[in-house]
């Protein structure tokens, strides 16, 4: 899977410190990084064309809100 290393969406910096590392239900490891401006983001993260593997049709924001 291709991963991307985004810049901070708040200040545009690309230097981060480690914040938290966790594993999802499939045992994939993800890292949260903290920017100098305090914003926390996932980095690296799956590229846009691969992110759909993590969000199936049962994912609440993708469902019809009126049906629940």
Task: Tell me about this structure.
By secondary structure, the protein is an all-beta fold. The chain is 0% helix and 32% strand. It contains no helices and 5 strands. The chain has strands spanning 3-4, 16-23, 29-35, 40-42, 45-46. The protein has a 3-stranded antiparallel beta sheet with strand order 2-3-4, with no helix packed on it. Strands 1-5 form a two-stranded antiparallel ribbon. A hairpin with a 5-residue loop joins β2 (16-23) and β3.
SSE inventory with pairings:
Elements: E1 3-4, E2 16-23, E3 29-35, E4 40-42, E5 45-46
Antiparallel strand pairs: 1-5, 2-3, 3-4
Give the helix/strand class.
Answer: mainly beta
Largest sheet: 3 strands, antiparallel
Number of helices: 0
The order of strands across the largest sheet is 2-3-4
Helix content: under 10%
Q: Which geometry do the CA atoms define? A: globular
Distance between the termini: 33 Å
Run of helices and strands: EEEEE
Mean pLDDT level: 84
Our estimate of the beta-strand percent is: 25-35%
Task: Pick out the low-confidence regions.
Answer: none
Number of strands: 5
């Amino acid at each position: 899977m291709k991963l991307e290393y985004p810049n901070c969406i708040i200040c545009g910096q690309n230097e981060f410190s480690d914040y938290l590392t966790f594993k999802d239900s499939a045992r994939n490891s993800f890292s949260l990084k903290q920017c100098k401006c305090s914003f926390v983001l996932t980095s690296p993260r799956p590229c846009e064309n691969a992110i759909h593997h993590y969000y199936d049709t049962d994912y609440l924001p993708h469902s019809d809100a009126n049906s629940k």
